Amino acid sequence: MGAFGDLTRINTNIQALDSLRMLQRTNQELGDRQLRLATGSRINRAEDDSAGYSISKKLEARVRGQAQALANIGDAKSMLTVAEGALGTVMDILQTMKEKVIQAANDTMGVDERNAIESQLDALAAEIDDLIADSQYNSRSLFTTTPLTFQVNAEAGDTFTVTIGTLSAAMLQVSDADLVVTDASNASTALANIDNAIQTLADTLASIGDDQKRLTFKMDNLSISMNNYEAARSRIEDADFAKEQMEIVKLQILQQTGTASLAQANASPQAVLSLFGG
């Protein structure tokens, strides 16, 4: 509420001061409303809403962290896809090996033919080792006992760990020394080794598939969570354009009436001159 002034005292024009104060307040609020329309944000400075500013910035930080975690999950799936592709090729090699061993187990094969088949098996075993050694992602070997840890959310401890394990032709028992096909009996033993290797590889591929599925669920959940947090931040921080425009129209009217009121208050002391009239 403004102070009361006496119009017969002209050194201090209380009515003009009150009008000026209200006009300045209107201008300030009008400027704030126009800034909100320009930026789209209800909170442009901490002083606009200190509590809302703090909450919205925390929500914004979490959403940005989750966005990066979402990218991390995509990278993790890509890494596991590289490993899966390599194992798929190894599986094709093992199936080729099985065909050749079954062929060598047949006594229609002579010594030279079986020696040729064994040479081919040796070459395939060497290729398995090459594939495993070359399977890397960003210069990191994939087939290792060292766990692969992925950051899958915005907080410390929100991690997902995958261990693919080491593989080689010797571990699968399909190396040069493991596959001998000089006769039907040895070929039968080699065939059993290859069948075991195929089962081991199938189990590893299934495990990678399970990990990829879990990452897909995490990705879907993270996307939903990001949308919800972004909606919460928007309700706190973003400007309501319809409301702001309505307030601006009101303030523009008050600005005009305030300017007129100030002009009248400035002119009021001139009435004192009538006291000096003849």
CATH architecture of the largest domain: Up-down Bundle
CATH superfamily of the largest domain: f41 fragment of flagellin, N-terminal domain
For the sheet with most strands, the description reads: 2 strands, antiparallel
Number of helices: 5
Tally of separate domains = 2
Rg, Cα atoms, Å:
40 Å
First-last Cα distance = 39 Å
The CATH class of the largest domain: Mainly Alpha
* Elements, N to C (H/E): HHHEEEEHH
* CATH level-3 fold name of the largest domain: f41 fragment of flagellin, N-terminal domain
Instruction: Characterize the overall form.
Output: rod-shaped
Mean pLDDT: 91
% residues in beta strands: under 5%
Give the strand order of the largest sheet, numbering strands 1, 2, ... along the chain.
1-2
Name the poorly predicted regions: none
> What's the number of extended β-strand segments?
4
Helix- and strand-based class? mainly alpha
The helix fraction, in percent, is 55-70%
Offer a quick outline of the entry:
The protein is mainly alpha-helical and 278 residues long. The chain is 67% helix and 4% strand. It starts with 13 loop residues before the first helix and ends in an 11-residue tail after the last helix.
List the helices and strands and how they pair.
Blueprint: H1 14-39, H2 50-104, H3 111-134, E1 136-137, E2 140-141, E3 148-151, E4 159-162, H4 184-237, H5 241-267
Antiparallel strand pairs: 1-2, 3-4
